[in-house]
Fold:
Amino acid sequence: MLATLLAEGFVRQDPVTKSYLAGRRMLELGLSALRNLDVRAAARPEIEALRDELEETVHLVILEGTHILFVDSVESGRAVRVGSRTGMKMPAHFTAAGKAILAQLPPEALDEYLDALPPGLTPRSITGRDAIRAEIELTAARGYATNFEESEDGLSAVAAAIPEPSGVVRSSITASLPAGRLPPERAEEIAGAVVRAAQGVGARLLGAVAQV
Structure:
């Protein structure tokens, strides 16, 4: 087992004592976990404020491979609302949150994503490679992403990527609404608030880095 961990970079062996220590991959995992905690802490005040402003459920999302992971949620107080998705994973391009992050990827990374597309989740899911690429390009051009019942019947959303100090974007904020409360003509109005919240998280992350 140690030989396998050594080969994969999870452990390394001291050449003198022959003892095993944490390797590069293990350190990367630890740093990744710390980073996610930092994003969650920085985002919490912003997603709560956005929830209060819109009176709708707001999620914090990170990209993990070809899927997004909902790492935090604050629910709307309205009787009819989208529930918390914390802990759920979904294919990225079926969600507004995922599209917002994919739109920030370098071309080669987006190509790798498009090489392994899962089947659609609803009749409205965008499934064709060219159609997905066009949607991602539209998202990049306007600065926010939308989802009109593409991931779940009756649910629509607007999302924006969080600008990160490293320049590598892996997280986003998404406002999720019952589809009846998000007609396409209202998306731009919602997007303005979501983009401001995402930028607020980015500013908090930059401030945290500056203090280190």
Q: What stands out?
A: Helices lie at 2-8, 24-54, 96-102, 107-114, 129-142, 187-211. The chain has a mean pLDDT of 87. The chain has one domain: 42-211.
